[in-house]
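We give this protein:

***
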Amino acid sequence: MTEQQLHPSIAALLKDVEPVLTAFKIDYYVVGAVARDIHLSAEPNSAALRKTNDVDLAILVQNEDQFKALKKALEKTGHFSQHPKENIKLIYKEAIELDLLPFGDIEQEDRNVSLSDPLFILNMPGFKEIHPSVEDIAVSEDHSVKVCTMEGIILLKLIANDDRPQRTKDISDIEHIISVYFELYDGSIYDEHFDTMDMYDTNEKDYLQLVCARVIGRKIKALLSGSDNLMERVKGILAKRPTAWWNAMLQGMKDFE
């Protein structure tokens, strides 16, 4: 297995978190900027190895009592302290914010997670759908981490931008991923989605990006195969931004219907 890169401070944080999660029998996966950068590090020209002060960890939680017990256990390790304001945050060694993003049975029917003391409400569409496809990625000889797929990252960014359109960085992040996607996953495209190579004019300057966007759309469709309402929502999000790349993702979601 090819090792991908993770900043040493983030690797240390995850090594301190993982035994506690195991003790509670709580599954997890890395999301957000850290997940994106792990994937990008597989291609040197795309790598973005840098220290971040914020780590997002999706955790499969039964209820709020389990969530609170997990936080207390992490604090007892001596490596984590409570964030002064936000219920989902812990501070690792007084330097890095750890966001614990609970999903699973703790979710209500509207996909909200309500936490108390203090009150904090998160909306978690997509996290449960992504969970079955997470990837185990080696980041050193003796350490592998569970990471959200690149298509899952794009799915969460589409939803986040729809909820908060002022987050324009989500759009630029998605477009950057599309621009480098072929370098990262050309083998998968050739092996599993070769038909997409004939769907666009090879003379187009963004030919490969259109192919990649189509493949990404197909993979997002696969992630959402059991969630019809969220599937339709994401199609609507893509339809609202009528650019060539967004349209290619939308068409990918409609393939084989």
Summary: Residues 159-254 form one domain. The chain is about 45% helix and 20% strand. The mean pLDDT is 93. The radius of gyration is 19 Å.
